[in-house]
Amino acid sequence: NAGVTQTPKFQVLKTGQSMTLQCAQDMNHEYMSWYRQDPGMGLRLIHYSVGAGITDQGEVPNGYNVSRSTTEDFPLRLLSAAPSQTSVYFCASSPGTGGYRVEKLFFGSGTQLSVL
Amino acid sequence: RKEVEQDPGPFNVPEGATVAFNCTYSNSASQSFFWYRQDCRKEPKLLMSVYSSGNEDGRFTAQLNRASQYISLLIRDSKLSDSATYLCVAFSSGSARQLTFGSGTQLTVLP
Q: End-to-end CA distance of chain A, in Å?
C-alpha cells in the first residue's frame, strides 16, 4: 500500500514555463487536494476534488489548473510559472464521508518548486 | 486575523520536560480539530483528533475549549524524537475549504 505518491520531489523552473505535478493514491479515497506551504503562512488549499470529474477552487487557485479523470490521480498544472509560485506543494487525500466531509488527511511527500 | 493562530515558537525544552502549545480559532462553526506533526522537510502526519472536550494518547493530551475557542496540546516527558513542528487544524463542514491550518509551532527537545 503506497498511500499518496507525489512526483517530482524537486523542480526548478524558469518564469513562464509550464509543468505538471503528479499525484496518485491507491486507497480509493474520494477526496483529493493540493496545498502549498510557505514560511509563516501555513498550508493553503489550491484546488480540491470530491470525486472523479468534480473539482473546485480552494483559497489560492490562481495560476493553477487541476483535473480528476480517475479516482486515483489528481495532477496539478502550473500554466505559466511565476516566482511567487516558489513553494512546497503537498497533495493530500481523505476517505471523506459522502465525498463532502473531509477530516483526516493523508499527505504525499511534497514537491519543492523553485521558479527563477 | 488568521482563522487559526498558533504561537510559532520556537519552543526549546529539555528532555523529560512537559510542554504545552495553544491554538486559537476564529470560526465558531468549527466542528472538530486536529493536531498534525511535521518533521523538517517532510509531509504533515496526523497526531491527534479532538472532537469533544479532549483526547489523550500516551504522553499527548489535546484539550478543546469551545467557549474560549482554543485548543491545546500537552506533551509530557518530552523525547528528542518529539522535535518537530506541530500544526493545529480546524474542520468546518460549512466552509468550502473545510480544513484550515495554522502556521505551526516549532518544538526542539534538547538533550
A: 36
